[in-house]
Design a protein that fits this description.
The complex is a heterotrimer of chains A (507), B (398) and C (247). Chain A contains 15 helices and 23 strands. Chain A is of the alpha/beta class. The radius of gyration of chain A is 24 Å and the shape is globular. By secondary structure, chain B is of the alpha+beta class. In chain B, helix 7 packs antiparallel against helix 8. Chain B is globular. Classes of the chains: A alpha/beta (507), B alpha+beta (398), C alpha/beta (247).
Amino acid sequence: MPSPQFSNFYPDFQVVRLWERCIKCKRCIKECSYGVHLWDEKKKTLLAYDNKCVGCHRCEAMCPTKAIIIRRYPSDFREHGLWSPWHIKNIYKQADQGGVLLTSTGCAQPYKNYFDHLVLDACQVTNPPIDPLREPMELRTFIGPKPESIEVEWQDGNFRLKEKLPSLIQLEVPIMFAAMSYGAISLHVHQGLAKAARDLGTLYNTGEGGLHASLYEYGPNTIVQCASGRFGLHVDYLNAGVAIEIKIGQGAKPGIGGHLPGEKVTEEISKTRMIPVGSDAISPAPHHDIYSIEDLRGLIFALKEATEYKKLVFVKIAAVHNVAAIASGIVRAGADAVVIDGLRGGTGAAPTMFRDYMGIPIELAISAVDKRLREEGIRHRTSIIASGGIRNSADVVKAIALGADAVYIGTAALIAVGCTMCQRCYTGKCPWGIATNDPELIKRLPPEVAYEKIYNLVKGWALEIKEMIGAMGINSIESLKGNRDKLRAVGLTEKEMQILEVKHAGE
Amino acid sequence: MWLLKEKTKEISGCGISGIINVRGELIPGQTIISSICCQNERGNGLGAGYAAYGIYPELKDFYALHVMAIDKTALERVDEILAHKTFITYQEPIPTRKVKTLKDTPLFKRYFVKPKFIEDLQRYCGEDDEDNYIVSLVMYINEKVDGAYVISSGKNMGVFKGVGFPSEIAEFFRIDEYKAFIWTAHNRFPTNTPGWWGGAHPFTILDWSIVHNGEISSYGTNRRYLELFGYKCTLLTDTEVVAYLLDLLIRRHGLPLQLACKALAPPFWMEIDEMEEEEKELYRAIRVVYGGAVLNGPFAILFAYNGGLVGLNDRVKLRPLVCAKRGNFYYMASEEAAIRVICQDPEKVWAPKAGEPVIVELEEGVIPNQRSYLRGRKREVEEDELRAECQFIPLQRS
Amino acid sequence: MSLELNASSYHYSEVNRIIRQAIFSGEKEIILTGVNGHRYLFAGVTSEIKAKIYGTPGLDLGCFMRGPKIEVFGNVQDGAGNTMDEGKIVVHGLGGDVIGYAMRGGKIHIYGDVGYRVGIHMKAYQDKVPVIIIGGKAGDFLGEYMAGGIIILLGMNTIYPERDIAGLFLGTGMHGGKIYIRGQIKEKYLGLGLKPYPLEKEDEKEIETLLQDYCADFQMDLNEVLKEDFIKIVPYTHRPYGKIYAY
């Protein structure tokens, strides 16, 4: 007798079909890449396997007569404060299959979100708020190491710089797109991100899957990533963008590498990653040329030498317990920017236990890193890029007020192109055509649509940021950086406020 | 209660006034009193103050430390520190009059000192580092001595300030008995905290003195930026940062005055983008490197030093500033009336552009220890070395 | 045309700058003497030049390079041929750790022994098949995560007669490529699931061609090298980690 599969007994979602609306057009069958809907030829009717449903809502959204509702499966387990259905079902899965629980996106545990305990200031009477619709409001931000002071000389009736600034990256909005590899997401999303980055005056990040030939033209708006797998990494790739990001870790899965299963390595991905079709793309947990901070310096300068010092080198780490000291070491190793990816940073695939229980919240990490670098007098030698769980423009403003120079958004950009957070990116079957490379599925999200949605999102956020800092009486973003006066805590402990260096509301 | 226990920043609106005689001829105190008192409506009796340059000609080569103390104990602590860290050539209580309306007046004392470099520091720090020494000393007293503050520390100049209307403070400090070649004055309207004597303007460091009308929305950023260079903002008011920023940019980093003003109130990117290449690079560098120094929010400030008077507005002109000239006199004030009351027939009255500094320097060689910052200042020591070696108090970053 | 440079008094960055400039102005051969610890030499160089290095080059010799043929008269330190794309590094001496990490093309010939983690994550793509040939012995984790390419381990020119030909965990996580070993290897040294196989006809042909080139570099006798039988290590599956997840 085959052993029962407990995990199949209790579906997460239920497909509710409103028969009075259903015209049996079978669109739902076509839309669902998980095979939930099927046609019973004998009875001439539609059936649904609830236990295959991941809750992506694609069928519901596409049903021409709005005849489908996807809802949580209504049958309940007996209430228990400790053993929630999530824990119970995870155990069933592992008992059935004996493996590591896998999931996608960022941390789903309801830890305290510090952004939600910080409120912003606004001017009333004593100084005027500024209206960005009619008065100048500047978001331009520079990424890279800056000298501590400048020297000028008087020549021919003018002052001029004695020494030019080192090369810096100019952003028109302090929001960049986080590393998401071609492979984890579709080429169309990459194309949309690249074009949006160009039109917004910001950068997108290739992730570790190489750079598709169609994207080289977006070089001035590209960060290329160098991860431990070194996929598609060669001299032309390193020279293609304006910065190279060494990925040490990722907030969703600190301390482990990546794994693009062979079935996702299609023809195009194979070309871009430069590995054979169908071959697993495994990124080791460490870079095997980096076992220490001096080795990191080794790789930073290897990349700088190979690109003749024309590219900035970023180093991305997950926010872990000792993040401040690590960041300090990274700056001293020569990184032009430190990317800190917090507890809630997303991923295409990560073990559930890593996603949900490893790392520290980004808010605390930003404050700690900024403080440490300032204490050591090396803050100007780098930029801090914060990522992981930035959900709206207020989060961006708070991150900058806590000391970040700019932020990365990943999940938010994907939601902008239709993601419903079903958290099944790792299957590669994304019915919305985002986290997939199935040639049929990717057609559901053309690059132009991806571009438009992402562009609109950041345009909206940029306007909101201008409104918010204008309300604070500030008309350029540099006056927000590290400006704790603009933040007050609501419902935080003394310790938390001490780490965040903020006062409580009312103080 | 003049000592504010709560560590909150004060917010205020105000009136300001300044006069300079470019030939270094002395102007009686009554002139500035008349000018600032004309703007009484801009204050509410919770703060006023005066800065005067050229008032100690006999002791011109000594740093004049004006110290304010809550009680004798605090003052004795200052005595002790100064005796240990400096050579004091002369000290006395600052002469005051009894003013009925002023309550809880603190103690005021002035010391005329030179730095006492101790052992090793002598080797590292030449004469040029006397200024840095005094800055560290002032930071040390302001931070470490409870209830005592150094309210001015330049040579041949001094600041007189407190909680009251400008007329009361002038009466208290006998301003009418002083003569100076530069005067600045302030009339205060703090809005959300009671005024305290230390929080009145002018604010100073060395011979820099600032009077300020406005609110610096970037205070949090500026303060953190200054902390990087060892400045401690202890006076709980945003104006303090302006003094330290000027000291940092002009004296320590050697930026010419005009460019330092541009760092505080930079041109917009849209303006910079239109500039010729060389100029563009310069302004881009100023904004990129000195982002933490930008004074954001509404302000009109007057700042003076041993050699000049400067007026500066924020870059979108959210506070008033009027200038006038007659002969060797230049006037700057919040209101034209404050100028006309002391100069009935100016040759020229004008309103400066937003973010464009109005710089008036004395003619060369008319005063002792004269400073000019129009062409910048040679940097004697690299910033890092300054920090590492020339601070007798190790930098304590909180 | 050739450039000869005594690198002893230069910083690596300066040496690389001179090299690039020389290549730009048409030099085809570069001779570096006095090399000692200079890092990243020929990093990212994409021209098919020849180079001779006398001394001990430092970290990441020829990293990311595509084209140069570098001959080293001395030992190489860690990371030689890191993520190299094309070209050749011939070492008349020993190699350090992590030689040929993630290399995608080209050849690395080492006369003597190498350190730990050599040939990790080598990959092959289309006509690019990277090759590392080690004349001596290797440390642990040879060919870890190997995804493509060829490693040949001879165990002949060694300064460690007491050691086994390779360390532990040889080929662990391997999911592509081949490792050839001259003589035998104890199975316990192999990564989980790996087994030694005898060579097939085309394997023999393959190694003969590769070794011919190797022997020519070091004036070794090919027949001597081929005297002993070789074994072959290949992945037991292309999806070594396909079954570790529960969905």
